[in-house]
């Protein structure tokens, strides 16, 4: 692999930045100054140091984010609203990390961000039926009949939702688990039983559970075990 490609994929430097740093003698490979950006390197074995900082090669990264209120689930927004990738270090943004799926602007909680497009596509494919759980609160008490209707599937504007589970913790709050992700789905499901969501937080996504140690707006890389579970 070319040196400039490796540094670009790692989010360390663009190809032009690599070329400039190489000319200035600010990159070493196995202790020797690398003057050419097209130098062939083995990212798994060679020791690359860029401007005094050792580079760890990772083609893909996987992050867990505790999404705060008011952020758009995107890498950019034409209206100028803050997006979830604004919360990340520049290194990850340079690596092309993006949200795997969406949460509404005012929905909180667990988001997976990655630059692994193949995994993201598989997790979001309708046929995958990846389960997602949300803690919720509603304006009015939910009756037993309301819960039965929600679990069986409700019409949300010409589409009948797939069966889900609802675990009521109180008359107006609980946890709902769905296996699809239609636009505003849970909000529309509650409206179908004449209710209204007042609070919504995703707490699981597939095998991932929101890390309670993550403050709102904070993130961390997934552990090796979490990545293994995601990849199945």
Secondary-structure topology with pairs:
Blueprint: H1 3-9, H2 15-23, E1 27-29, E2 32-33, E3 48-50, E4 53-54, E5 62-67, H3 90-94, E6 98-99, E7 108-114, H4 117-124, E8 132-138, H5 144-152, E9 165-170, E10 173-178, H6 185-192, E11 197-205, E12 208-209, E13 219-221, H7 224-231
Parallel strand pairs: 7-11
Antiparallel strand pairs: 1-2, 1-3, 3-4, 5-7, 5-13, 6-7, 8-10, 8-11, 9-10, 11-12
Rounded to the nearest angstrom, the radius of gyration is: 22 Å
Q: Supply the CATH superfamily name of the largest domain.
A: Pseudouridine synthase I, catalytic domain, N-terminal subdomain
CATH topology label of the largest domain? Alpha-Beta Plaits
Q: Any idea what the CATH architecture of the largest domain is?
A: 2-Layer Sandwich
Strand content: 25-35%
Q: How many strand units? A: 13
Mean pLDDT: 96
How many structural domains are formed by the residues? 3
Largest sheet: 9 strands, mixed
Tell me the distance between the termini. 28 Å
Low-confidence stretches: none
Structural class: alpha+beta
SSE series: HHEEEEEHEEHEHEEHEEEH
Report the top-level CATH class of the largest domain: Alpha Beta
The outline comes out as: elongated
Structure notes:
This protein is of the alpha+beta class. The chain has three domains: 52 residues, Structural Genomics Hypothetical 15.5 Kd Protein In mrcA-pckA Intergenic Region, Chain A (Roll), CATH 3.10.290; 89 residues, 2-Layer Sandwich (Alpha-Beta Plaits); 75 residues, Alpha-L RNA-binding motif (Alpha-Beta Plaits, 2-Layer Sandwich), CATH 3.30.70. Helix content is 23%, strand content 25%. The protein contains seven helices and 13 strands. Strands 5, 6, 7, 8, 9, 10, 11, 12 and 13 form a nine-stranded mixed sheet that branches. A hairpin with a 2-residue loop joins strand 9 and strand 10. Helix 1 packs across helix 2. It is elongated. The chain starts with a helix and ends with a helix.
């Amino acid at each position: 692999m070319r040196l400039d490609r490796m540094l670009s994929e790692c989010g360390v430097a663009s190809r032009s930045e690599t070329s400039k740093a190489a000319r200035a003698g600010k990159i070493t490979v196995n202790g020797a100054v690398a003057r050419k950006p097209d130098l062939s390197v083995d990212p798994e074995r060679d020791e690359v140091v860029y401007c005094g900082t050792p580079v760890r090669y990772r083609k893909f990264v996987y992050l867990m984010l505790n999404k705060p209120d008011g952020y758009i689930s995107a890498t950019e927004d034409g209206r100028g609203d803050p997006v979830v990738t604004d919360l990340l270090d520049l290194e990850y943004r340079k690596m092309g990390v993006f949200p795997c799926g969406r949460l509404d602007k005012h929905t909180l909680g667990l988001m997976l961000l990655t630059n692994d497009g193949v995994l993201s596509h598989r997790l979001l494919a309708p046929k995958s039926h990846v389960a997602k759980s949300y803690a919720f609160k509603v304006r009015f008490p939910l009756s037993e009949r309301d819960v039965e209707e929600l679990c069986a599937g409700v019409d949300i504007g010409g589409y009948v939702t797939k069966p889900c589970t609802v675990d009521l913790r109180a008359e107006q709050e609980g946890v709902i688990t769905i296996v699809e992700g239609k636009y505003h789905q849970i909000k529309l499901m509650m409206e179908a039983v004449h209710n209204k969501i007042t609070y919504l937080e995703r707490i699981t996504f597939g095998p991932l559970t929101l890390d309670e140690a993550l403050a709102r707006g904070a993130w961390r890389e997934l552990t090796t075990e979490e990545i293994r579970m995601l990849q199945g």
